[in-house]
Amino acid sequence: SGERVVELGTGCGAIALRLCATGKPAAVHGIDIAPDAIRLCRRSAGAFSGAPVPTFSVGDWRQPRSLGDAGSARLVVCNPPYFPPDTGALSAEEPRRQARHAAADTLAAVCAAARWLLQNGGRFCLCHRPEYLNAVLAAATVAGLEPKRLRPVQETAGAAPWLFLLECRKGGRPGLQWEAPLCRYVANREESAEWRKIYNE
Predict the structure, then answer these.
(1) How far apart are CA 169 and CA 194, in angstroms?
(2) Strand partners, 152
(3) pTM (2 decimals)?
(4) Cβ(59)–Cβ(29) below 8 Å
(5) Among candidates 155, 99, 108, which has minimal Cα distance to 130?
(6) What is the pLDDT of residues 74-123, one digit of tens each?
(7) Quick one: the chain helix, strand, coil %, rounded to 5?
(8) What are phi and psi of 147, to 5 degrees?
(9) What is the dihedral of CA 145, 33, 12, 46, to 10 degrees?
(10) Whole-angstrom distance, CA of residue 4 vs CA of residue 60
(11) Integer distance in angstroms from the first to the last C-alpha of the chain?
(12) Tell me: the pLDDT tens digits for 19-33?
């Protein structure tokens, strides 16, 4: 509530729009390297009836100083590309390839961009796959973003996590809180009450 939020790698703008629809931020700004994606985001924002209306711009997180003023955000969020460049089928379309496949410096670049944009004490939130947890924690720590809250996301209580949610704090003190899993389903493949609450169902 009342915070200025920046989303790195906004893609279609769904997260930025959702933040405006369900929270009470002061402002939300989405950044993506793909001009076509930003055009679609702006079209969606033009049809958005809530407040505030998110804004969008083309930008590259490998050039943090071009993304905005230092310390201009209280919260930075990111759903980065998960997969190494030498795995899986690579899309022939550059924007899709960039959205799915990380470069060798992706984590370091994302964390450095978040650090540049954040005020001291500001939060950086991202999701990633469990097999990259060590790399994510290391990149965040090197960038001066102290990991503070970690939550696994699971299909059911007994399943292995397929995703994790991480909150870091710029200039925060060491100390990581491991939270209970967020489970999508309970018995009989019924979506959990918490999952439904998150999606306002």
Answers:
(1) 25
(2) 164
(3) 0.89
(4) no
(5) 155
(6) 999 999 987 666 555 555 665 554 544 455 589 999 999 999 999 999 99
(7) 30, 30, 40
(8) -65, 125
(9) 110
(10) 19
(11) 21
(12) 999 889 999 999 999
d(CA 69, CA 36): 24
Q: pLDDT at residue 146 above 80?
A: yes
Among 131, 84, 138, CA closest to 111: 138
Residue found under tokens 């076509």 = 36
Q: What is the length of the chain?
A: 201
Q: Show the tokens assigned to 180.
A: 């209970």
The tokens of 142 are what?
A: 């090197």
- Rounded Cα distance between 150 and 164, Å, is 7
- Residue recorded with tokens 């969008």: 56
CA distance 67 to 83: 24
State the pLDDT at residue 187: 82
- DSSP three-state, residue 117: helix
